[in-house]
Prior knowledge:
Blueprint: E1 5-12, E2 16-21, E3 29-37, E4 54-58, E5 64-68, E6 76-79, E7 82-89, E8 109-116, E9 120-128, E10 132-138, H1 143-146, E11 147-156, E12 159-163, E13 168-172, E14 178-186, E15 191-193, E16 197-199, E17 207-214, E18 227-233
Parallel strand pairs: 1-18, 3-9, 10-17
Antiparallel strand pairs: 1-17, 2-9, 3-6, 4-5, 4-7, 7-8, 10-13, 11-12, 11-14, 14-15, 14-16
Amino acid sequence: MKYPIYILLSIVLFTACQQDEVAPTGGKAVLELDLLLNGRPQMEVTRACDADLVVDILDANRAPYRHYDAGSVPQKIVLEPGTFYIQAYTDNQENWKSANDGKGEACYFQETSVEMEYDMVKRLQMRVPMTNYAVGLQLPDLWDMLFSAYTFRLKSGGRTVVIRQGERAYFDLADGGFSYALSATNTDGRTSSHSAISYLDVNAGKLYTLTYHYDSDANSGGIDIVIDDMTIDNNPINS
């Protein structure tokens, strides 16, 4: 009893603007923040900071000036006149790969600069982008009825991650892509597999879903792997 399959690779595509206005500030330089993770729906509050974002403010020499932990970033910040660098990021910069039992998680970072003046309100909007990418698996209908076991293995940058259908693994863009391989045992006890296939054309903020289908040629035997199509959806990942 053989169930050859092929795959479809689909991709989902896992900025800052400023506004100045003269307003009553009591002679102060005021920075108003509107910071959200890219792909997350806009909050009802007009200007706010996503609770998952840490904010660092550096001075003109890039020395630390202010630090705000996730969930504690004020909407308005009083600063001195001058140039400042604003960094917004999730606090998993160093450990996102080990999260979720080694499958990883989305990591976000962005930096921009602002010029502050007395008697000026600076409104800063940032949609903080994802800096890594995700890989997922989609199996065809009736898979669990036809196959008693399977292993879907991903490798990238020295990491090996095994995921199930509906799960995601997250990888570093700097590692230059990933490879994937599927091994499946059907209900007759026959195991089929394919050699690891490399995919190198990766970009930050995208979800690469490997979607397997049953091959229409029932005589081909085993697992027949064909990249049938590749599409890009310009919607950010919802992590």
